[in-house]
From TrEMBL:
InterPro entries: AB_hydrolase_fold, AB_hydrolase_sf, Hydrolase_4. Pfam families: Hydrolase_4. Signal peptide: none annotated. It comes from Mobilisporobacter senegalensis. This is Pimeloyl-ACP methyl ester carboxylesterase. Transmembrane segments: none annotated. Residues 13-228 form the Serine aminopeptidase S33 domain. GO terms for cellular component: membrane.
Amino acid sequence: MIFKETENKEFPTIILLHGGGLSWWSLKPIIELLKNNFHVVTPIIDGHGEAAKETFVSIENSALKLIEYIDDQYNGKVFAIGGLSIGAQIVTEVLSLRNNITENAIIESALVYPMKGAASMTIPTYKLFYGLIKKRWFSKLQSKTLCVPDKMFEQYYDDSLKITKESLINITLSNGNYHLKNSISDTKSRVLVIVGEKELRIMKKSGIRLHEAIADSELYIAPNMRHGGISLLYPEQYVTLIANFFNKKK
Protein backbone atom coordinates (compact mmCIF):
# COMPACT_ATOMS: atom_id res chain seq x y z
CA MET A 1 0.00 0.00 0.00
CA ILE A 2 1.06 3.55 -0.73
CA PHE A 3 -0.32 6.22 1.60
CA LYS A 4 -1.10 9.71 0.31
CA GLU A 5 -1.92 12.37 2.89
CA THR A 6 -2.78 16.02 3.32
CA GLU A 7 -0.93 18.42 5.57
CA ASN A 8 -2.21 19.61 8.97
CA LYS A 9 -1.53 16.43 10.89
CA GLU A 10 -2.86 18.11 14.01
CA PHE A 11 -6.38 17.73 12.59
CA PRO A 12 -8.45 14.58 13.23
CA THR A 13 -7.37 11.84 10.81
CA ILE A 14 -9.74 10.37 8.25
CA ILE A 15 -8.58 7.41 6.15
CA LEU A 16 -10.50 6.88 2.90
CA LEU A 17 -10.07 3.83 0.65
CA HIS A 18 -10.96 3.90 -3.03
CA GLY A 19 -12.97 1.32 -4.92
CA GLY A 20 -11.70 -1.50 -7.12
CA GLY A 21 -10.14 -0.36 -10.39
CA LEU A 22 -9.77 3.18 -9.08
CA SER A 23 -7.12 4.91 -6.96
CA TRP A 24 -6.65 7.86 -4.64
CA TRP A 25 -7.36 10.31 -7.48
CA SER A 26 -11.03 9.29 -7.38
CA LEU A 27 -11.16 10.88 -3.91
CA LYS A 28 -9.63 14.24 -4.85
CA PRO A 29 -12.95 16.19 -4.79
CA ILE A 30 -13.71 14.79 -1.32
CA ILE A 31 -10.18 15.55 -0.12
CA GLU A 32 -10.58 19.17 -1.18
CA LEU A 33 -13.79 19.46 0.82
CA LEU A 34 -12.33 17.85 3.94
CA LYS A 35 -8.75 19.06 4.10
CA ASN A 36 -9.44 22.33 5.93
CA ASN A 37 -10.86 20.43 8.90
CA PHE A 38 -9.27 16.98 8.71
CA HIS A 39 -5.98 15.27 8.03
CA VAL A 40 -7.00 13.05 5.11
CA VAL A 41 -5.11 9.85 4.29
CA THR A 42 -5.89 8.04 1.05
CA PRO A 43 -4.19 4.64 0.72
CA ILE A 44 -3.60 3.22 -2.73
CA ILE A 45 -4.64 -0.41 -2.48
CA ASP A 46 -2.08 -2.92 -3.77
CA GLY A 47 -2.49 -3.71 -7.46
CA HIS A 48 -3.92 -0.29 -8.29
CA GLY A 49 -2.42 2.81 -9.90
CA GLU A 50 0.91 3.78 -8.37
CA ALA A 51 0.82 0.59 -6.28
CA ALA A 52 0.27 -1.67 -9.32
CA LYS A 53 3.69 -3.31 -8.94
CA GLU A 54 2.65 -4.65 -5.53
CA THR A 55 0.38 -7.63 -6.26
CA PHE A 56 -3.02 -7.48 -4.61
CA VAL A 57 -3.33 -10.58 -2.41
CA SER A 58 -6.68 -10.35 -0.63
CA ILE A 59 -9.05 -8.11 1.33
CA GLU A 60 -7.78 -9.72 4.52
CA ASN A 61 -4.16 -8.99 3.63
CA SER A 62 -5.01 -5.37 2.81
CA ALA A 63 -6.84 -4.99 6.13
CA LEU A 64 -3.78 -6.21 8.04
CA LYS A 65 -1.57 -3.70 6.19
CA LEU A 66 -3.95 -0.88 7.07
CA ILE A 67 -4.04 -1.91 10.74
CA GLU A 68 -0.24 -2.01 10.81
CA TYR A 69 -0.12 1.51 9.34
CA ILE A 70 -2.58 2.87 11.91
CA ASP A 71 -0.63 1.22 14.72
CA ASP A 72 2.66 2.66 13.48
CA GLN A 73 1.49 6.16 12.60
CA TYR A 74 -1.48 6.88 14.89
CA ASN A 75 -0.94 4.77 18.00
CA GLY A 76 -3.66 2.35 16.97
CA LYS A 77 -6.64 4.66 16.56
CA VAL A 78 -7.96 7.32 14.16
CA PHE A 79 -11.02 9.54 13.97
CA ALA A 80 -12.59 7.83 10.96
CA ILE A 81 -12.05 5.16 8.31
CA GLY A 82 -14.18 5.01 5.18
CA GLY A 83 -14.21 3.04 1.96
CA LEU A 84 -16.08 2.31 -1.25
CA SER A 85 -16.71 -1.15 -2.70
CA ILE A 86 -13.57 -3.26 -2.16
CA GLY A 87 -12.28 -0.38 -0.04
CA ALA A 88 -15.42 -0.73 2.08
CA GLN A 89 -14.84 -4.48 2.36
CA ILE A 90 -11.35 -3.72 3.68
CA VAL A 91 -12.86 -1.31 6.22
CA THR A 92 -15.36 -3.98 7.25
CA GLU A 93 -12.54 -6.48 7.74
CA VAL A 94 -10.53 -3.97 9.78
CA LEU A 95 -13.52 -3.41 12.09
CA SER A 96 -13.89 -7.17 12.44
CA LEU A 97 -10.26 -7.56 13.47
CA ARG A 98 -9.89 -4.54 15.76
CA ASN A 99 -13.00 -3.32 17.57
CA ASN A 100 -11.71 0.09 18.68
CA ILE A 101 -9.40 1.16 15.86
CA THR A 102 -11.56 4.13 14.84
CA GLU A 103 -14.20 6.35 16.37
CA ASN A 104 -16.24 6.38 13.15
CA ALA A 105 -16.52 4.22 10.04
CA ILE A 106 -18.21 4.79 6.67
CA ILE A 107 -18.96 1.64 4.70
CA GLU A 108 -20.21 2.44 1.18
CA SER A 109 -21.40 -0.38 -1.06
CA ALA A 110 -19.63 -3.30 0.61
CA LEU A 111 -20.49 -6.76 -0.70
CA VAL A 112 -20.66 -9.16 2.26
CA TYR A 113 -22.42 -12.11 0.62
CA PRO A 114 -20.19 -14.36 -1.52
CA MET A 115 -21.22 -14.20 -5.18
CA LYS A 116 -22.27 -17.54 -6.64
CA GLY A 117 -19.85 -18.64 -9.32
CA ALA A 118 -17.07 -16.21 -8.35
CA ALA A 119 -14.68 -19.03 -7.57
CA SER A 120 -15.58 -21.06 -10.64
CA MET A 121 -14.57 -18.51 -13.29
CA THR A 122 -12.10 -20.12 -15.66
CA ILE A 123 -8.62 -18.91 -16.53
CA PRO A 124 -9.67 -18.29 -20.17
CA THR A 125 -12.45 -16.03 -18.84
CA TYR A 126 -9.92 -14.02 -16.84
CA LYS A 127 -7.61 -13.80 -19.85
CA LEU A 128 -10.45 -12.47 -21.96
CA PHE A 129 -11.45 -9.87 -19.38
CA TYR A 130 -7.83 -8.87 -18.81
CA GLY A 131 -7.44 -8.28 -22.53
CA LEU A 132 -10.64 -6.24 -22.65
CA ILE A 133 -9.68 -3.85 -19.83
CA LYS A 134 -6.71 -2.77 -21.93
CA LYS A 135 -9.07 -1.65 -24.69
CA ARG A 136 -10.04 2.01 -24.53
CA TRP A 137 -13.63 1.39 -25.65
CA PHE A 138 -14.13 -1.25 -22.98
CA SER A 139 -12.58 0.96 -20.30
CA LYS A 140 -15.03 3.66 -21.30
CA LEU A 141 -17.92 1.27 -20.67
CA GLN A 142 -16.40 0.11 -17.39
CA SER A 143 -15.86 3.67 -16.19
CA LYS A 144 -19.56 4.40 -16.68
CA THR A 145 -20.47 1.27 -14.71
CA LEU A 146 -18.16 2.39 -11.91
CA CYS A 147 -19.57 5.95 -11.93
CA VAL A 148 -16.17 7.42 -12.78
CA PRO A 149 -16.64 11.12 -13.64
CA ASP A 150 -15.82 11.94 -17.28
CA LYS A 151 -13.01 14.29 -16.23
CA MET A 152 -11.29 11.36 -14.48
CA PHE A 153 -11.52 8.89 -17.37
CA GLU A 154 -7.99 9.38 -18.69
CA GLN A 155 -6.54 8.68 -15.24
CA TYR A 156 -8.80 5.65 -14.93
CA TYR A 157 -7.72 4.32 -18.32
CA ASP A 158 -4.02 4.87 -17.57
CA ASP A 159 -4.39 2.90 -14.34
CA SER A 160 -6.27 0.13 -16.14
CA LEU A 161 -3.19 -0.39 -18.29
CA LYS A 162 -1.02 -0.86 -15.19
CA ILE A 163 -2.94 -3.61 -13.41
CA THR A 164 -1.41 -7.07 -13.63
CA LYS A 165 -3.33 -10.22 -14.47
CA GLU A 166 -2.52 -11.73 -11.07
CA SER A 167 -3.85 -8.69 -9.21
CA LEU A 168 -6.98 -8.63 -11.36
CA ILE A 169 -7.72 -12.27 -10.60
CA ASN A 170 -7.07 -11.83 -6.88
CA ILE A 171 -9.20 -8.66 -6.71
CA THR A 172 -12.08 -10.36 -8.49
CA LEU A 173 -11.94 -13.51 -6.36
CA SER A 174 -11.47 -11.70 -3.05
CA ASN A 175 -14.31 -9.29 -3.78
CA GLY A 176 -16.71 -11.99 -4.93
CA ASN A 177 -15.91 -14.42 -2.12
CA TYR A 178 -15.78 -12.03 0.83
CA HIS A 179 -18.06 -12.90 3.73
CA LEU A 180 -18.91 -10.95 6.85
CA LYS A 181 -17.21 -12.08 10.07
CA ASN A 182 -19.29 -12.49 13.23
CA SER A 183 -16.76 -10.36 15.11
CA ILE A 184 -18.04 -7.25 13.31
CA SER A 185 -20.73 -7.10 15.98
CA ASP A 186 -18.04 -6.36 18.59
CA THR A 187 -16.98 -3.07 17.04
CA LYS A 188 -17.09 -0.02 19.28
CA SER A 189 -17.03 2.33 16.30
CA ARG A 190 -19.97 4.41 15.19
CA VAL A 191 -20.80 3.08 11.72
CA LEU A 192 -22.59 4.62 8.76
CA VAL A 193 -23.57 2.10 6.08
CA ILE A 194 -24.31 3.55 2.64
CA VAL A 195 -25.84 1.77 -0.35
CA GLY A 196 -27.34 3.14 -3.55
CA GLU A 197 -31.05 2.76 -4.20
CA LYS A 198 -30.33 1.54 -7.76
CA GLU A 199 -27.63 -0.96 -6.84
CA LEU A 200 -27.95 -4.70 -7.37
CA ARG A 201 -30.23 -6.53 -4.96
CA ILE A 202 -27.28 -8.35 -3.37
CA MET A 203 -25.62 -5.00 -2.61
CA LYS A 204 -28.72 -3.66 -0.86
CA LYS A 205 -29.06 -6.97 0.95
CA SER A 206 -25.42 -6.59 2.07
CA GLY A 207 -26.09 -3.09 3.38
CA ILE A 208 -29.04 -4.31 5.42
CA ARG A 209 -27.03 -7.21 6.81
CA LEU A 210 -24.22 -4.89 7.91
CA HIS A 211 -26.73 -2.55 9.54
CA GLU A 212 -28.35 -5.43 11.42
CA ALA A 213 -25.00 -6.92 12.48
CA ILE A 214 -23.61 -3.66 13.89
CA ALA A 215 -25.55 -2.32 16.86
CA ASP A 216 -26.57 1.33 16.62
CA SER A 217 -25.24 1.65 13.08
CA GLU A 218 -27.03 3.90 10.61
CA LEU A 219 -28.16 2.76 7.17
CA TYR A 220 -28.45 5.37 4.42
CA ILE A 221 -29.98 4.32 1.12
CA ALA A 222 -28.84 6.97 -1.36
CA PRO A 223 -31.82 7.94 -3.55
CA ASN A 224 -31.44 7.19 -7.28
CA MET A 225 -27.78 6.23 -6.85
CA ARG A 226 -25.93 3.36 -8.47
CA HIS A 227 -22.77 1.68 -7.12
CA GLY A 228 -20.45 4.40 -5.81
CA GLY A 229 -22.61 7.14 -7.24
CA ILE A 230 -22.86 9.37 -4.20
CA SER A 231 -19.14 9.64 -3.36
CA LEU A 232 -17.84 9.67 -6.94
CA LEU A 233 -20.43 11.85 -8.64
CA TYR A 234 -21.77 13.94 -5.76
CA PRO A 235 -18.83 14.55 -3.39
CA GLU A 236 -20.50 17.58 -1.77
CA GLN A 237 -23.52 15.49 -0.87
CA TYR A 238 -21.26 12.71 0.42
CA VAL A 239 -19.25 15.08 2.62
CA THR A 240 -22.43 16.66 4.01
CA LEU A 241 -23.75 13.19 4.81
CA ILE A 242 -20.66 12.04 6.69
CA ALA A 243 -20.21 15.42 8.42
CA ASN A 244 -23.76 15.21 9.76
CA PHE A 245 -23.03 11.67 10.93
CA PHE A 246 -19.85 12.76 12.71
CA ASN A 247 -21.71 15.57 14.47
CA LYS A 248 -24.42 13.36 15.89
CA LYS A 249 -24.03 12.51 19.53
CA LYS A 250 -23.49 8.88 20.34
